[in-house]
């Protein structure tokens, strides 16, 4: 072998190694995207409020709790009103929900979602009045108020109606002011625990290995399929935030079980890359039965006593598509599976039936999830 050929082979090997490394790195995800620090989580808030300023699309007069809420609000403002004279066409009762992020301080703002709970036709153009948002403990953690942003519309009359999306649900971006802080602090000891969003033993092992390689010592040990215990090094005891930031930006290639997710309502099929089949032969053909009816006139002969009558004629036609037999060998990849099933002209509906049959035959090595 000449020196020139040796250099060419060496360069090709280096290029292949770089491409392989880049492809593996491209599949990696940051720890902060696949796991979270135990105890650091959001808190759910909920409240009951009123939306006003609607253009006749509010609750009807039969919605008694809307009238009661409106009268109570007006009485708190010092107004004396007759409930029988109150009209709520321009108002609607709503449920307001929000997520309180961890470490939120009083004075910060969060988004809220406003959902109609009466029979209002649309919340477009409405304004949410001051609504206390409470946590599971019954304490008020935020107060929401502001103009709604509705991503839908509904217009029409008695004979026709046009609707797009859901006009009875809206948002108020930054519409809630945080009034109370959820007490939480970073662990004061020398241990942290990270929890995976999707539990998996392989991903946990890779995560612990990446952390140990980063700090050149064994500080991370898997607890189970969903968590990793991490010992904070002594030089990071006074700067836990820096230590967490260093961990969260490490890249790990997550692993997941082979699944085929099927939605029979929409005909949607999603397959993971690790789906494999044993050797199996697939044949699929469609059987169609077409029944049509036509009316024919029965005309009696001249000078006869018969009557002209309409007689229905029924025609039936059976059509069956030819089924092509396709053999898929053991261990085929997702791309080969797709090409093989497309070769027999299978539609999404047909693919659902085919995958169910392959799973029943024991040749599909993946979990079949039907929504």
Q: Could you characterize what this model shows?
A:
The protein has 371 residues and is of the alpha+beta class. The chain has helices at residues 3-26, 31-34, 64-76, 201-215, 240-248, 334-343, 348-360; strands at residues 29-30, 35-37, 43-52, 91-100, 109-116, 127-134, 140-147, 149-150, 153-156, 161-164, 169-178, 191-196, 220-224, 227-231, 251-252, 259-263, 268-271, 276-277, 280-283, 287-298, 309-320, 325-328, 364-365, 367-370. It folds into 3 domains: 43-154 and 164-178, no CATH class; 186-252; 260-294 and 311-370, no CATH class. The chain is built from 7 helices and 24 strands. The strands form 8 sheets. Strands 3-4-5-11-7-6 form a 6-stranded antiparallel beta barrel. Strands 2-12-14-13 form a 4-stranded antiparallel sheet. The protein is flat. The protein starts with a helix and ends with a strand. Residues 14-26 and 287-291 have low confidence and may be disordered.
Major sheet: arrangement of strands: 3-4-5-11-7-6
- Low-pLDDT residue intervals, each spanning 5 or more residues: 14-26, 287-291
- Helix/strand-derived category reads alpha+beta
Sheet of most strands: 6 strands, antiparallel, barrel
Calculate the terminal CA-CA distance, rounded to whole Å.
60 Å
By oligomeric state, this entry counts as single chain
What is the strand tally? 24
Specify the helix fraction band. 10-25%
Tell me the strand percentage band.
35-45%
The total domain count is 3
**Gyration radius over CA:** 33 Å
Mean pLDDT across every amino acid position = 79
Shape: flat
